[in-house]
Amino acid sequence: MFEKDIEAAAEHFKRLLERQLERNERIKSQGDFTDYKKLDKIVIGVCGGDGIGPVITAQSADVLAFLLKDEVEKGKIEFKTIDGLTIENRIAHMKAIPDDVLEELKKCDVILKGPTTTPQAGDGRPNIESANVAMRKALDLFANVRPVRIPEEGIDWTFFRENTEGAYAVGSDGVNVTNEVAFDFVVTTTEGTERIARLAYNYARANGKDRVSIIQKANVIKTTDGKFLNLCKEVAKDFPEITTDEWYIDITTAKLIDPKRRKDFKVFVLPNLYGDIITDEAAEFQGGVGTAGSANIGKRYAMFEAIHGSAPRMVEEGRAKYADPCSMLRASAMLLSHIGYIEQSKALDKALDICTASGEYKITGRDDGCTCAEFGEYVKKTLRSVLNEN
Ligand code: IPM
Ligand code: MG
After folding, report:
1. What are phi and psi of 160, to 5 degrees?
2. What pLDDT, in 10s, does the model give residues 115-164?
3. Which protein residues have their CB within 5 A of the ion that is ligand 2?
4. The pLDDT of residue 14
5. Which end of the chain is less congested by CB atoms within 10 angstroms, N or C?
6. Is 110 within 8 Å of 45 (Cβ atoms)?
7. What pLDDT score was predicted for residue 28?
8. In the beta sheet, which residues pair with residue 157?
């Protein structure tokens, strides 16, 4: 009696399979990571997004321009402003990333991207795919690297969230088989897993971290999480000096709040959705999602962003100018280190530590605190003295 429904769903599934198999071939044939030292010029795209995005992105780009002034003068760095990733323009084109915007993004080497509003079913807008997710897929930014540090509590975590597969791979392309039965799909590929695992282990080795934790739910999500776990364990064999442990995602969320246990975690490698959830939890310990930056790394491109959303309510209430730029500034520090400006990156992180600890300019998101621009000026002033000390 469901023959027609099953047939339609199977057709849909067939299309998904074709696309995922093609993607798998594509990612297997990718070259090596960009060597920024070899580029004559590095183009930094600045893409404001929407909501509070343009405010905090402009402030961060200003700090980056301050730190890279000499490089810009030498012609080694070029900033490129990219408009058009607003929710209005995306809806006008009915595309997660309008074609002309994607073309501009592809002309950059690295991108600083402000938050972008993500529609959801029933919010009165066309339910187009998230611009974040679309950009990660379009530029094959397969690793989402999110550090969380609380030195006084001995916490120094780095999350390697797989960024293009898992529950997100076809997250906007599930199927309502009937009015009553809906299906989504989870995708794990060998290449997709091995490359994130290798990046996590290489990072651990290069940074003297002696433990990598593989987070999954392989006891229940047996096929895709099982594959993810097994492949990560295979990669681990090439890193015998590093202790590998395996944790289910549910108990991991609990252990992150166990003061005795949580210090032992160092590097995490995990599928997309678990990484999404747990990095918000982790950032909360550090002072909230407003304090955490995120690097989306691929072989050809890399994109740096806040881990939080576009806070449309702040804009509606006229409070956008009080938005906290810290997460974008942390992302900017990650961008600097990614393209080889280690000294500037460290200086920016240090200046941010000083500025947030001093309490001199407090950001509250309201008019009882300082504005984003005031905080940005304070960061630049602090940077001047940090750089002078060095
Ligand atoms: C993140 C965000 C995104 C995600 C949203 C905005 C689509 O929560 O970067 O963690 O789910 O990945
Ligand atoms: Mg998230």
Report:
1. -110, 95
2. 999 988 888 888 899 999 999 999 999 999 999 999 889 999 999 999 99
3. 276
4. 98
5. N
6. yes
7. 96
8. 148
Cα of 241 from ligand 2 centre, angstroms: 32
Structural domains of the chain sorted by starting position, each given as residue range(s) with its CATH number in brackets: 31-141+298-390 (3.40.718.10)
116 lines ligand 1 (CB under 6 A): no
C-alpha to C-alpha distance for 312 and 277, rounded to whole angstroms = 21
User: Whose CA is closest to atom 11 on ligand 1?
Assistant: 276
Q: pLDDT value at position 290? A: 84
Nearest to 275 by CA among 215, 327, 211: 215
Give the position, in ligand 1's atom list, of the atom nearest the Cα of 309: 6
Short-list 274, 289, 244, 246, CA closest to 148: 289
Q: What's residue 1's pLDDT?
A: 85
Long-range contacts of 100-108 (CB under 8 A, 24+ apart): 101/47, 102/138, 104/45, 104/80, 105/45, 105/47, 105/135, 105/138, 105/139, 105/301, 106/139, 106/301, 107/43, 107/45, 107/80, 108/43, 108/44, 108/45, 108/80, 108/82, 108/301
Among 378, 313, 308, which Cα is nearest to 348's?
378
Q: Name the nearest CA neighbour of 144 among 306, 252, 349, 256.
A: 306
At 214, list the tokens: 């593989």
Tell me what pLDDT residue 390 has. Answer: 75
**Nearest-atom index, ligand 1, CA of 294:** 9
Per-residue confidence (pLDDT) for residue 288, from 0 to 100 = 87
What does the CA dihedral 46, 51, 52, 53 come to, rounded to 10 degrees? -10
307 lines ligand 1 (CB under 6 A): yes
- b/e per residue, 307-338, with b = 16+ CB within 10 A? bbbbbeebbeeebbebbbbbbbbbbbbbbbbb
In this structure, the number of other CB atoms found within 10 A of the CB of residue 216 comes to 25
**Packed helices 53-67 and 342-358: angle between N→C axes, nearest 10 degrees:** 130
Name residues of the chain where pLDDT drops below 70.
none
Question: What CA–CA distance (Å, rounded) separates 329 from 110?
Answer: 15
Ligand of minimum distance to the alpha carbon of 117: 1
CA torsion through residues 134, 19, 186, 140, sign: negative
Contact 109 CB / ligand 1 (< 6 Å): no
